[in-house]
């Protein structure tokens, strides 16, 4: 057994999650382009492709480069590329695989166009649309005008639109995933029709996250969904009702290093081991603590330092120094990013695998 | 210039920070054993040793192994080691450098003792004391009894006690750093005297963090301080009054990738780039946002996804797509852990260096 803490991935659960989402997409007649941000592993991307995914999504160019080097040949960078240096890297990569890049501004698109021209390439581009999440994405009402300007640039092929808003409506977190997903799909299909009416050759209408993908996929005219988290699932998705805790394929294995008092113990994983971007107690999920403790579901991973997880216990709880505790993290994507390795478990067999696309920031 | 986002370290500021803490320790007649968790870089540890540090502190055995492999030969693992596998690794390492390990339970100490015996080593041990932070550490009132039991174990040399509580008093965050530091030192010196009165050969009384080290060092009988953050400093320390923002040696360089609206822009660093363990708005610091934006001090890094930092702007703010923004993170230690590389700047010269002890969890 590896020394703790480490991230253990159950390949049977992962396989079932991959298969279920592939079936959902197939049943709705949409393409599935999983976001690889969750696993950051070329081998896992290949499992998704083998199950029917049409390609993968990444957020950063450096992630695309890792995935392409491992043999993945259809990649969408769902992120605006706006600097000459990265545009040149993208143009170069575009010469070796089918690459699609995101854009949400004229300034960024111009830089992409120029770099593609210098490289003798044509870059396939999708325009990112803000459907209420207020992150990147051109405001919905400005999309037609910007699409026309991008379409007019040389060396770019504007072939699609995409959006992300996760489990939110009008920029506010929601538990009404069906309404969120349907509205997301409808907004995007309506926009695609307006763009086509203006003569823009929009083929791809790409939407959807793990919580909303199954609903957005039902909207006629949506062509693609991009869920990421579903591959492992996590405590946040279980609380949203997207899966059960039993579907969560990734657990952090920790060791109790201290039980100084009946009412708490300390495990050897803190904020270097568990992501802190999904904080306990925040709306609408109101998660208790930073993870679900499989052995003691009533215990609460209440506080963390970098290397310490402080777990509030019932004083009767038998947790003692040396015990191993398995903890399902609140947010698996950002937790995976903290781990240099994952341990893939196929029944009794456990294989250590480097997370080769983790920590790729640029 | 590297592609963004990346972590830029100003070596002149770092040098001044290292020198200032070395002077503080020297003036108080205490040893300085910096916690390497902040930089996670052997070369930076060597700078601290050259400036007079007596050794270094780490939290995990794997960090000690990286530092020892790079030539650091006096390391304190300020963390309980409680499993046979790690105890064996520690005993092995102890054969090659001066190693001190933490302990806070009899069960853990017994495992250390047995592993040391099997390896033909004697392990130097310090007992961790809880002085109110309620993390690891034996409760203060139980320390004498536990120290006696550990002292009686073969193959262990119990030579010191240590504690951590940062800027807190009685388990509550405080801004009264002087009182926190003095009280921490006094509690520990008093305990050391009681232990010596019981015949225990306690030499080292190790305390102090970046916010409290300078105060704790003043207490007669304290022999060592273990600050970490001071090497780079950060926004949290500046808000505590330990340093100024100008002393902060580490900034994240980001690029504006989107300005969808006059009132916000988006940079290419989110929770994969900036630590989220020190959340905005929490007591007592009430930090606004996740970092200080050097170019626009009034702007607020308000929300983050993994790859997006959403910055609230004054509508008149000229930030535009392609601009580089330099951001001082709230918490530098956990931010460093997210970066595979840092870029060390010596005037105009910038060197990319792998953060070789980052992500070492076990």
Topology:
Two copies of one chain form a homodimer.
Chain A: E1 6-10, H1 11-28, E2 31-32, H2 42-50, E3 56-58, H3 61-69, E4 74-80, H4 84-94, E5 98-103, H5 106-119, E6 123-130, E7 138-139, H6 143-151, E8 156-162, E9 168-169, E10 172-173, H7 177-197, E11 204-207, H8 213-216, E12 224-225, H9 235-240, E13 250-261, E14 264-267, E15 291-293, E16 300-304, E17 309-312, E18 324-329, H10 332-336, E19 341-346, E20 349-354
Parallel strand pairs in A: 1-19, 2-12, 3-4, 4-5, 5-6, 6-7, 6-8, 8-11, 11-12
Antiparallel strand pairs in A: 1-13, 9-10, 13-14, 13-18, 14-17, 15-18, 16-17, 19-20
Secondary-structure content class of chain A: alpha/beta
Number of H/I helices of chain A: 10
- Largest beta sheet of chain A, briefly? 9 strands, mixed
CATH topology (fold) name of the largest domain in chain A:
TIM Barrel
Q: Tell me the count of domains of chain A.
A: 2
The N- to C-terminal Cα distance of chain A equals: 34 Å
N to C succession of SSEs of chain A = EHEHEHEHEHEEHEEEHEHEHEEEEEEHEE
**CATH 2nd-level architecture of the largest domain in chain A:** Alpha-Beta Barrel
Task: Specify the overall morphology of chain A.
Answer: elongated
Structure summary:
Two copies of one chain form a homodimer. The first copy, chain A, has 362 residues and is an alpha/beta fold. Chain A is built from ten helices and 20 strands.
């Amino acid at each position: 057994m590896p020394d703790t803490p480490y991230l253990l991935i159950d390949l049977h659960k992962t396989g079932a999650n991959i298969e279920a989402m592939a079936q959902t997409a197939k049943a709705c007649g949409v393409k599935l382009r999983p976001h690889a941000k969750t696993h950051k592993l070329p081998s896992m991307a290949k499992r998704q492709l083998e199950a029917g995914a049409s390609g993968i999504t990444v957020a950063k160019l450096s992630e695309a480069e890792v995935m392409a080097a491992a043999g993945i040949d259809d990649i969408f960078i769902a992120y605006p590329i706006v600097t000459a240096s990265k545009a040149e890297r993208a143009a170069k990569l575009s010469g070796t695989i089918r690459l699609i890049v995101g854009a949400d501004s004229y300034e960024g698109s111009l830089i992409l166009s120029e770099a593609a021209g210098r490289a003798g390439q044509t870059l396939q581009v999708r325009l990112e649309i803000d459907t209420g999440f207020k992150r990147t994405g051109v405001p919905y009402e400005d999309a037609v005008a910007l699409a026309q300007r991008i379409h007019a640039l040389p060396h770019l092929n504007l072939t699609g639109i995409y959006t992300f808003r996760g489990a939110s409506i009008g920029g506010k977190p929601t538990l009404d995933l069906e309404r969120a997903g349907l509205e997301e799909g409808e907004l995007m299909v309506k926009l695609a029709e307006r763009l086509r009416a203006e003569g823009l050759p929009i083929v791809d209408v790409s939407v959807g996250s793990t919580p909303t993908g199954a609903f957005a996929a039902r909207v006629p005219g949506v062509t693609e969904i991009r869920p990421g988290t579903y591959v492992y699932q996590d405590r946040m998705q279980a609380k949203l009702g997207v899966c059960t805790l039993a579907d969560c394929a990734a657990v952090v294995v920790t060791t109790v290093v201290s039980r100084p008092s009946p009412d708490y113990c300390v495990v050897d994983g803190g904020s270097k081991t568990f992501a802190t971007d999904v904080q306990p107690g925040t709306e609408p999920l109101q998660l208790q603590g930073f993870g679900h403790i499989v052995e003691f579901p009533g215990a609460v991973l209440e506080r963390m330092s970098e290397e310490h997880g402080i777990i509030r216990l019932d004083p009767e709880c038998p947790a003692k120094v040396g015990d191993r505790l398995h903890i399902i993290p609140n947010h698996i994507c950002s937790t995976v990013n903290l781990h240099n390795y994952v341990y893939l478990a196929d029944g009794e067999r456990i294989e250590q695998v480097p997370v080769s696309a983790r920590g790729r920031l640029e």
